[in-house]
Write a structure and sequence with these properties.
Layout (H helix, E strand, L loop, with lengths): L3 H11 L3 E8 L6 E8 L1 E2 L5 E6 L3 H8 L2 E7 L12 E11 L2 H10 L12 E14 L5 E5 H4 L7 H15 L1 H11 L8 E6 L2 E6 L2 E6 L10 H14 L1
Antiparallel strand pairs: 1-2, 1-5, 3-4, 4-7, 5-6, 6-7, 7-8, 9-10, 10-11
């Protein structure tokens, strides 16, 4: 398998900030399938991060059986939705107190900071097992977690928070040009909410966007020149 297919799956899930969570509600006759809408962020290894209320039905289901699925729907706006891409990530959900995962989620969903500290809310990390991609009629593939996960980039997780603070605080004009010049988006006030080896995540109010790099970053030292090059290209447009 070439890396094109796994990367297309990664780009699909990274450009969405919500998914349908499928879990199994406890039932005397066996687990009952239950689907719900959840907000999602992604760790650098593509593990989904969730913030769930302990009172929600899906949290009760996870407590009984950690196996869940997340459906990411990339068919919005298509005249024939079944020709578009969607991917189901399957794995096991577990509570986490990892500060990097918490930070990544709240950067992706800043409004969640209003309730993230409540005692009845918990963060979860989904340990991936496999993924099912449907890219249109007859375009169906199973991928293992090992096939799907990107190559780790040493130091990026530790550096990301500082890079985002620097870009949003000192180079908001460059981020704005990324959005309008490279992605063709409108409106002022775009900010950068995430950086990984294959691209950057942007947000403006309720709008989100994904700007993918060409070749992935090979080392942490490549971050600055890559962002500078994107700004140069954006100015040229």
């Amino acid at each position: 398998m070439t890396d094109n297919l796994p990367r297309s799956v990664r780009e699909l899930v990274r450009r969405l900030d919500r998914a349908t969570l499928a879990s199994g509600l406890p039932d005397p006759e066996g687990a009952w399938p239950y689907a719900s809408l959840v907000l999602v962020a992604l760790a650098h290894d593509l593990s989904p991060i969730l913030l769930l209320s302990d009172l929600a039905e899906h949290s009760k289901a996870i407590a009984a059986d950690a196996r869940v699925s997340l459906l990411f729907d990339g068919t919005f706006g298509l005249a024939q939705p079944l020709t578009g891409p969607r991917v189901t990530l399957m794995g096991r959900a577990a509570r986490t107190t990892d500060k990097d995962l918490t930070r990544r989620f709240l950067a992706r969903h800043p409004d969640a900071a209003m309730y993230a500290g409540f005692k009845d809310f918990s963060f979860y990390r989904l340990s991936l097992v496999r993924a099912h991609l449907v890219a249109g009629f007859g375009k169906i593939n199973w991928l293992s977690a090992a096939e799907l996960q990107p190559r780790p980039l040493a130091g990026l997780g530790e550096a990301e928070e500082g890079i985002l603070a620097h870009m949003n605080g000192d180079h908001g004009d460059a981020i704005q040009r990324y959005a309008t010049g490279l992605l063709g988006l409108s409106g002022e006030g775009w900010c950068m909410t995430g950086l990984d080896s294959e691209g950057i995540d942007l947000r403006r109010g309720g709008e989100i966007a994904r700007l993918a790099f060409g070749p992935p970053l090979g080392a942490i030292e490549e971050v600055r020149p890559r962002l500078v090059d994107l700004a140069r290209r954006a100015r040229a447009t």
